[in-house]
Write a structure and sequence with these properties.
The complex is a heterotetramer. Chain A contains six helices and 16 strands. Chain A has helices at residues 87-93, 134-142, 165-173, 219-231, 264-267, 273-276; strands at 10-12, 19-30, 33-40, 53-58, 62-67, 78-83, 101-107, 120-126, 150-156, 178-183, 193-194, 211-216, 239-242, 258-259, 262-263, 270-272. In chain A, strand 9, helix 3 and strand 10 (178-183) form a beta-alpha-beta unit. The longest helix of chain A has 13 residues, at 219-231. In chain B, strand 15 (309-310) and strand 16 (313-314) form a beta hairpin. Helices cover 33% and strands 25% of the residues of chain B. Chain B starts with 7 loop residues before the first strand and ends with a helix. In chain B, helix 1 packs across helix 6 (202-211). Chain B has helices at 17-25, 85-88, 121-134, 142-149, 167-170, 202-211, 218-234, 244-250, 256-263, 269-273, 319-338, 348-352, 359-367; strands spanning 8-12, 28-36, 39-44, 55-60, 63-68, 92-99, 104-107, 113-119, 152-156, 182-188, 193-199, 214-215, 280-286, 292-299, 309-310, 313-314. Chain C is an alpha/beta fold. Chain C is 38% helix and 11% strand. In chain C, strands 2-1-3-4-5 form a five-stranded parallel β-sheet. In chain C, strand 3, helix 3 and strand 4 (79-85) form a beta-alpha-beta unit. The longest helix of chain C has 13 residues, at 66-78. The N and C termini of chain C lie far apart (58 Å). Chain D has one domain (45-420): Cytochrome-c3 Hydrogenase, chain B (Orthogonal Bundle). Classes of the chains: A alpha/beta, B alpha+beta, C alpha/beta, D alpha+beta. At the C-D interface, helix 1, helix 2, helix 5 and helix 9 of C face helix 1, helix 4, helix 5 and helix 6 of D. Bound molecules: flavin-adenine dinucleotide (FAD) and iron/sulfur cluster (3 copies). One iron/sulfur cluster binds next to helix 10 of chain B. Flavin-adenine dinucleotide sits between chains A (53, 62, 64-67, 69, 81-83, 85-89, 128, 131-132, 244-247, 269) and B (309-311).
């Protein structure tokens, strides 16, 4: 049943299946995390909503889901922030012209930014979890008048592991958002908060009926963050988290990303807690 | 078999081979049940000669045995280890080739049209479910779509259901309700051996026209109805599907999961013989020269560790959790995903599980 | 992207040579392998020896003499990546059958002057003495998996060497299960894929030359074999063949008695 | 100056299967010491075969050697069939010859072109040789691949195939599956003729010895699995009489035994021995090609074993094609037999020469004792004798050349060291 195929008896693949991109810029964020600015060679415009992701293919190595981490209004260059953890992420970060990166997407649903209009918003990020939230921050700031209070809580392992340092500085200096940053372990130069991200909740008071929360980070961090949010009175329908599961296709066809009744790739990756509380935090679901 | 204004045809057994010939003439690659290595498997048929006649299967949990009888029945057995999935969604398939410069190639469909003869009603339902999963969502599975598109199904009603069948519980059999082009009932007595043909589609009609069948007589139709009524009662294995989904959701932490986890081999047999399990994986290849790379798709199973791997470790480390994922998917989460069960009651997973784990028993234990 | 050509070294310990021969059995690719890699040390194929360090070392065979122990340690230092190839190197191989017996008794049986025998009590996998970066299973390794490791190395890819059961390959291939349909005991459900389900394809049960799969349920399968009418003693023999000394199969006798 | 002591030492012998070393010491024309050492670790096969079931033995003994697993499987299944009084005949017997053809082709192509030929032309290895002689190396690889393909078709894989068993096979090919190989075999046959002509043209050192050649001989066919053990010096015995006529000597410095014929001395097994003793049983194309290149039997130049090897490669293609032509599908994959207690003997012609097995079996099929004598052990004494004989003249060559020539002389025998160490009573010197 094995098809023997040579380059000759095949036809050219339609671009929507995999768009070839060049890497225009590589920004070093931390020692192991880089932001790649991709340009689709077909020059077609690229649109996405904050919270969505792409499947990125490194030639001969593999394909992995990576969140869109840039400004949704930027149509020319597509930003992805990639942490090197294995073969594919390593190959992606090290791709240079004339090499290319294959891109499929955008996939997934994104953060409920429309729904949250007129309400307060709290964004809680852990580590690389900030990547899919950065577009949401851009969006809220760009439509600042349409939202109430805006809290941003961010935790990383060490000061060195903080992403987007320039923007963090800017966000901290803004008066129209409350930014709190913490690290698990500081260094001699660090003068900010030390402790896991949930310790920051002491510093804020949320209006439970009027606040939407967007959370992304390691599963254990999200679990405790959800508890804090509930402590402050938020109901599960207002708490949104972004899940991570193994993905091969991104289109709900390969089955790998199942989480209870959901396919994380097409029903998520963003879920409200009341959708998933039956499964979230249970062992090995 | 309801008979409002519908014509049923009759074909004498000696003429049965014509179906295969006609299908071939119409340009189909015909798959049908043949005997290989002690079981009934789908193979490409050159003629009806290759169909396993006079063979009957005995199935029980973890056991399958073919028995030869001295009759000429074409379809004396029920389902074998392969499902139509094997033909319509091949276990391993090339997805694309890509050159170093990014030029990408996908395999071209060779225009092969497939006909499958001898599908059982549960298999038809399984194809319907696969259609639902692979073709009706926001994205289509193109390999399946290409093979499925023009496929013709000649189904066979089950007059002798197997021991592991529980199609009546899943409302999928023992007779076909939909999804076929032609559905056949084999009618064998001491005196006669005929096939009663029920034609559903134009493609089916095209085949039947070329066969030159006569119309079935009223007695024949009566006899067939009786046969099928009896068949229904012969399906003894049951699964109570009432509230099944909710019962399972409630029992996500039931102690029986651990118990079955101790027996389950996590070998994946159940998922690969299952006619609806659709999970697949991919792997990448590259030439030594690094000039061309390929990506292949292949059947995967939720019983493998890699299936749920994310950086840092797999989500489902224990066999228990993998069995639970499987059963919960078949009988609970599938309902939320696609509106039907992911199980058609064909019993394959029970038969082909080397240690004979029975999904109906485990479901009952968990909810009990 | 003019990458430098990786230097490769191939070593042998106690073994039948079959795994390194698998490289030479890649007839279609052999000359290209010679181009893409610098074959710096490979005694079976070449007299030429290039000094280390090497980018990759492929190690065949098990550690079974005191001299082996010293050698593998220095090899580890010489090789950036160390790949253990085959059942001997990953599980001790067939010669590990001595590990359950007394070497002294074995020596007496086999040698006229057992006091001359210089060998270790046990035949062990490479990983018992040094850290191994990748294990390629099989007795012998599957040559296409070997090729995959080499091309994955060049591509910087994680090699596609699945760790699930033989059954998965068996079913994908369209085989009929020999255990279910014929009552033939088969180790497939607890053994790692990679061979293409060879034995069942040839109408016999898998004898385990790829060693334990990722989560082998030895106990459950052994009870199945008992149900099929096998002697406990013969079940132990079955697990104790080419990969019997692997961690998961080693104590099959105890698991059966439980 | 003239009578200076010269030594040649090769710590790791390359391009042989396994680990061996060479030590030669010469003073003038006097050879002081010749050692062909085998230092491969002992693997105790005979010891752990005790207590195993007879049906496991073909799989286990195959692991003695990855280059000639079929030989080990064949010698052992014939030994057990000898115990059980089973006679495999007809198509099953033919299939056994067929798979053996595959092993000869694969092994001979490997040795002749990848291991031995580079010696004649002064290359370190075949990959380097391929830069200047791409055509020959590529053709040899194609031939080798076809040999491997035969093994893989019948047995699933080329190394340690899985289909051979006592009584026949686990599964046999259909006529159609055999037919598929025909085109490749024809191609391989044509290439083998070219390759044989090519090796016959190599430059051979002048060196001849009065060898005793030993191999099987069968009345009707070139020997693979059956026959009597014969020599050019009058030996003619049944396989079961092997141990009455051959003895093994303990040599302290090597991990392998030296075999010799009782009352006589060293002897040679392998392609050169076989062809000298069975020339009349070759098929026409092989004979004609040999004739056209001027190869005559008896040939006493061990360096010309490469010609014998290529001739057997060609013969194997002819034989394999004959088998395909005449193949009828057998009634079942194996014959029935009754397991009983007793002693059985098997000797078959491995690519490197006769491979002898003897087993004692209990009534339930459990192995009680085992003895295995591989070809390389039988040749070892003869190899040293060759080295001794050529040492005085070779030592006159420049050191590098001398080393190379000695190595080449060892490689004449295609020694498989993995095989050689896996038999009874070997001895390791304490350092
Ligand atoms: C929706 C989504 C968005 C993501 N966004 C980002 C992002 O913006 N930045 C970022 O650095 N990482 C992100 N990840 C995680 C990223 O996909 C993994 O780090 C990556 O797959 C690791 O691949 P690897 O080959 O480098 O590592 P390995 O650990 O060697 O992984 C081997 C293989 O396992 C699979 N795999 C491993 N980890 C994951 C995972 N977490 N999710 C899915 N498949 C996995 C992949 O197929 C991968 O090739 C995201 C994951 C998901 C599901
Ligand atoms: S049961 Fe498992 S393999 Fe089958 S479709 Fe569901 S998740 Fe996939
Ligand atoms: S249920 Fe049975 S067939 Fe399925 S994985 Fe477990 S042991 Fe294998
Ligand atoms: S034959 Fe063996 S490997 Fe194949 S499915 Fe059955 S148990 Fe698994």
């Amino acid at each position: 049943m094995k098809a023997k195929v040579t380059l000759e008896n095949t036809q050219t693949l339609e671009v929507e299946v995999m768009r070839k991109c060049s890497v225009e810029e590589v920004i070093k964020e931390t020692p192991d995390t880089y932001t790649l600015m991709l340009k689709p060679l077909d020059k077609k415009e690229y649109n996405f909503v904050p919270g969505q992701f792409n499947m990125l293919y490194a030639f001969g190595v593999g394909e992995v889901p990576i969140s869109l981490s840039g400004d949704p209004d930027e149509k020319r260059l597509i930003a992805h922030t990639v942490r090197i953890v294995g073969a594919v992420t390593n190959a992606l970060v090290n791709t240079r012209k004339p090499g290319f990166i294959g891109l499929r997407g955008p996939f997934g649903n994104g953060w409920p930014l429309e729904k949250a209009k007129g309400k307060d918003v709290i964004i809680v990020a852990g580590g690389i979890g900030l990547a899919p939230l950065r577009p949401a921050i851009y969006y809220v700031l760009k439509h600042r008048k349409e939202y109430g209070k805006f809290f941003f809580l961010y935790g990383a392992r060490t000061p060195n592991d903080l992403l987007y340092k320039k923007e963090l500085k800017e966000w901290k200096s803004r008066f129209d958002m409350d930014t709190f940053i913490t690290v698990d372990a500081g260094d001699e130069k660090w003068t900010g908060n030390v402790g896991v991200v949930t310790t920051l909740f002491k510093r804020i008071r949320l209006d439970p009926d009027n606040t939407y929360a967007f959370v992304c980070g390691p599963e254990i961090m999200m679990k405790f963050t959800v508890l804090e949010l509930r402590n402050q009175g938020l109901t599960d329908d207002k708490i949104y988290i972004s899940m991570e599961r193994n993905m091969k296709c991104g289109m709900g066809l390969c089955g790998h990303c199942q989480f209870g009744p959901y396919f994380v790739c097409k029903d998520g990756p963003v879920f409200s807690m009341d959708q998933i509380n039956r499964f979230f935090g249970r062992r090995e679901v | 078999m309801s008979s409002q204004q519908k014509t049923y045809f009759a074909l004498d057994a000696e003429m049965f081979g014509n179906i295969i010939d006609v299908l071939k003439d119409l340009g189909y690659t015909v798959y049908g049940p043949t005997e290989r290595d002690g079981a009934i498997v789908y193979d490409v048929l050159d003629s009806a000669e290759q169909i396993a006649r006079g063979l009957y299967d005995e199935q029980s949990p973890g056991r399958y045995k073919l028995v030869k009888k001295n009759d000429k029945r074409y379809f004396g057995y029920v389902v074998g280890p392969q499902s139509p999935k094997y033909v319509l969604y091949p276990p391993q398939h090339l997805l694309f080739k890509v050159r170093k410069d990014g030029k990408t190639f996908i395999p071209q469909s060779d225009g092969k049209k497939i006909a499958i003869v001898g599908l059982r009603p549960c298999d038809l339902k399984a194809i319907e479910i696969l259609d639902n999963v692979l073709l009706k969502g926001p994205y289509k599975e193109s390999v399946y779509e290409a093979l499925r598109k023009d496929a013709v199904f000649i189904a066979v009603n089950c007059v002798e259901p197997g021991n592991n069948c529980f199609c009546t519980s899943m409302n999928t059999g023992p007779f076909a309700q939909s999804g076929y082009d032609i559905c056949i009932t084999e009618f064998l007595t001491d005196r006669s051996h005929v096939f009663i043909l029920d034609v559903m589609t134009n493609r089916g009609a095209e085949v039947v026209n070329r066969l030159g069948c006569r119309n079935a007589t009223a007695e024949e139709l009566d006899a067939v109805s009786r046969l099928m009524e009896e068949a229904k009662n012969k399906v003894r294995k049951r699964l109570n599907t009432e509230n099944l989904k909710d019962d399972l959701y409630k029992n996500i932490e039931h102690p029986n999961w651990n118990e079955v986890g101790n027996r389950c081999l996590a070998c994946g047999n159940c998922t690969l013989v299952c006619p609806t399990c659709f999970c697949s994986s991919v792997f990448d290849k590259s030439s030594l020269s690094m000039d061309v790379a390929e990506r292949w798709g292949l059947w995967d199973s939720c019983f493998s560790i890699d299936y749920s791997y994310i950086h840092g470790g797999s989500i489902r480390q224990s066999i228990m959790s993998r069995y639970r994922q499987w059963l919960m998917h078949k009988l609970a989460t599938w309902v939320d995903q696609f509106g039907t069960f992911g199980c058609v009651g064909c019993g394959r997973c029970i038969t082909w599980c080397p240690v004979g784990i029975d999904i109906t028993e485990e479901a009952n234990r968990v909810r009990g | 992207m003019a990458r430098k050509i990786p230097k490769i070294a191939v070593y042998k310990f106690a073994s039948c040579d079959g795994c390194q021969l698998s490289i030479v059995d890649l007839e279609d690719e052999l000359l290209e392998i010679g181009q893409r890699f610098e074959i710096a040390y490979f005694m079976e194929v070449t007299r030429a020896v290039k000094k280390g360090p090497y980018d990759v070392g492929l190690v065949e065979g098990s550690i079974s003499t005191p001299h082996d122990v010293e050698l593998i340690k220095s090899i580890r230092k010489d090789c950036k990546k160390l790949v253990a190839i085959g059942a001997c190197a990953t599980a001790g191989g067939i010669q590990a059958l001595r590990n359950w017996a007394s070497v002294e008794e074995f020596s007496k049986y086999v040698y006229a002057k057992p006091e001359y025998i210089q060998t270790l009590e046990k035949s062990s996998p490479i990983s018992e003495y040094v850290q191994v970066d990748l294990e390629l299973r099989g007795c012998p390794v599957n040559k296409y998996q070997l090729l995959e490791v080499l091309s994955a190395l060049l591509a910087g890819r994680k090699p596609n060497t699945p760790t699930y059961s033989v059954c998965m390959e068996c079913k994908r291939k369209g085989n009929v299960c020999v255990t279910v349909a014929k009552g033939i005991p088969c180790l497939g459900p607890v053994v790692q894929a990679g061979c293409g389900a060879l034995c069942p394809t040839y109408s016999r049960g898998c004898y385990g030359c790829f060693g334990p799969m990722e989560s082998p349920n030895v106990k459950s399968l052994a009870s199945k074999f008992i149900e099929l009418g096998m002697d406990k003693k013969d079940i132990v023999l079955m697990f104790r063949e080419f990969t019997g000394w692997s961690k998961e199969f080693r104590e099959v006798d105890r698991l059966i008695e439980e | 100056m003239k009578n200076r002591v010269k030594t040649v030492k090769v710590d790791y012998l390359a391009r042989v299967e396994g680990e061996g070393a060479l030590y030669i010491k010469v003073k003038g024309n006097e050879v002081l010491d010749v050692k062909f050492k085998i230092f491969e670790a002992p693997r105790f096969f005979e010891a752990f075969l005790r207590g195993r079931k007879y049906y496991e033995v073909p799989d286990i003994t195959a692991r003695i050697c990855g280059i000639c697993p079929i030989a080990y499987q064949m010698s052992s299944v014939h030994a057990f069939e000898d115990v059980f009084g089973a006679k495999v005949d007809g198509p099953l017997r033919e299939l056994r010859r067929f798979i053996y053809c595959g092993e000869w082709i694969e092994s001979h192509a490997l040795h002749a072109f990848l291991l031995h030929a580079p010696d004649f032309l002064g290359y370190d290895d075949a990959i380097r040789m391929a830069k200047d002689h791409p055509d020959i190396v590529k053709k040899a690889l194609i031939v080798k691949k076809i040999g491997n393909d035969i093994m893989a078709r019948l047995g699933g894989r080329e190394i340690h195939p899985v289909s051979v068993c006592v009584g026949g096979f686990y599964k046999v090919p259909t006529k159609r599956q055999m037919e598929v190989l025909r085109e490749d075999l024809k191609k391989g046959m044509d290439l083998s003729v070219e390759l044989l002509r090519w090796v016959a043209d190599l430059k051979f050192p002048d060196f001849e010895q009065d060898y005793e050649f030993v191999s099987l001989r069968h009345p009707d066919e070139y020997p693979f699995n059956e026959g009597r053990i014969v020599s050019n010096k009058g030996l003619d015995i049944q396989i079961r009489e092997y141990e009455d006529n051959f003895v093994e000597e303990h040599i302290p410095y090597t991990n392998a035994l030296h075999s010799y014929i009782k009352g006589r001395g060293s002897y040679m097994v392998g392609p050169l021995a076989r062809i000298n003793l069975n020339y009349d049983k070759l098929w026409d194309l092989t004979k004609d090609t040999l004739k056209s290149v001027g190869f005559k039997v008896p040939c006493r130049n061990p360096f010309k074993s490469i010609i014998a090897r290529c001739a057997e490669m060609l013969y194997s293609f002819e034989e394999a094609l004959r088998i395909i032509n005449e193949y009828k599908e057998p009634n079942g994959p194996r014959i029935d037999y009754e397991i009983k207690a007793g002693r059985g003997f098997g000797c078959t012609e491995a690519p490197r020469g006769s491979l002898y097995h003897r087993y004692d079996v209990a009534a339930d099929g459990t192995v009680l004792s085992a003895k295995i004598v591989p070809p390389t052990a039988q040749n070892q004494k003869r190899m040293e004798d060759d080295l001794r004989a050529m040492a005085p003249s070779v030592m006159k060559l420049p050191y590098e050349k001398a080393v190379w020539r000695f190595e080449q002389a060892v490689r004449n025998y295609d020694p498989c060291i993995s095989c050689a160490t896996h038999f009874l009573r070997l001895e390791v010197e304490h350092s």
